[in-house]
Amino acid sequence: MSNVRVRDFEMGFDDDGTGIPVVFVHGFPLDRALWIHQRSALSSSARCIVPDLRGFGESTGAASSMGTYADDLVALLDHLDIPSAVFCGLSMGGYICMELWRAHPDRVRGLAFCDTRHTADSEEQRTTRNELIEKTKEHGPQVVVDAQIDSLIAPSTRERRKDIVETLNAMILRQSVEGIVGALKAMSARPDSTETLKSVTVPTMVIVGEQDQITPPASAQAMFDLLPLSARPRIERVAGAGHVSCLERPAAVNHAISDFLATVESE
Ligand code: MLT
Does ligand 1 lie within 6 Å of residue 208's CB atom? Predict the structure, then answer.
């Protein structure tokens, strides 16, 4: 575990293992603890770099655009003296990976999109986000727990894995209001990434929980269909998982990422 001054804020991150560098980018409204199982299992064969995004976990500040988060991650690579890495992002982390491909393609060696989508928010989604911003400012992160917790996980996880429900509850509750509000603004303003996906030339994988209610398998399939042959696209559907597939079904997700990394490394 380390903390470093990156650009204009303090960033908390983990950096474990040796091998191909992989940056794991967490979703909203979470922090780097989301990737605990990937970090422990994959650090025997990869260098796992797991940051807290600006305003989440141990990272200070707040962002208001995907560009800020993407530039922060590139600054972390600069600090670690890493020319390029595989980026693996879940949901909002995936939106940031799409921005990374737009803004810093030379730093991207491969892309793993987990439980995410390429489309921008609809007007209705923006209205919902604005309402959540106002409620969070007034009442704090508990309103985000109330709004999100049921849709983050598969029904079977909710019934049988109280530990995961508690982990997610605690993770959301420890986030700052500024970080949450900034991310909601950034997600609301993010562009459509159809052309971005069509332009990918590095190996790319799409992973989705079969019971993901936020970014369902149809979204993952649509992303996969947009990827050109130059991205050597592959897709993995994870049985028994919802939106946070990496936490709900870590063995299946680790297996898929590990296979993917072997392919990227062999290029
Ligand atoms: C996430 O999991 O990062 C968010 O739910 C994504 C979103 O709200 O669009």
Answer: no
For residues 143 and 133, what is the distance between their CA atoms, to the nearest angstrom? Answer: 10
Instruction: State if residue 91 touches ligand 1 by the CB under 6 angstroms criterion.
Output: yes
- Top mutation candidate among 24, 26, 28, 152 for ligand 1, by most atoms within 8 Å of CB: 28
Helix axes 142-152, 123-139, angle to 10 degrees: 130
205 sits in which H/E element: strand 204-209
Query: Quick check: 193 and 222 in contact, CB under 8 A?
Result: no
Contact call for residues 52 and 13 (beta carbons, < 8 A): yes
- For the Cβ of 27 lying below 6 angstroms from any atom of ligand 1, the answer is yes
Cα 185 to Cα 68: distance, rounded to the nearest angstrom: 12
Residue 243 CA, distance from chain mean position: 11
Q: Is the CB of 92 inside a 6 Å radius of any atom of ligand 1?
A: yes
What's the pTM value of the predicted model, to 2 decimals? 0.98
Span 118-149, pLDDT tens digits: 999 999 999 999 999 999 999 999 999 999 99
How far, in Å, is the centroid of ligand 1 from the Cα of 27? Answer: 6
Residue 85 CA to ligand 1 center (angstroms) comes to 23
- Mean pLDDT to the nearest integer, 12-38: 98
Identify the residue whose tokens are 């997700």.
253
Which CA distances in Å does 219 have to 24, 148, 160, 176, 240? 21, 19, 27, 29, 17
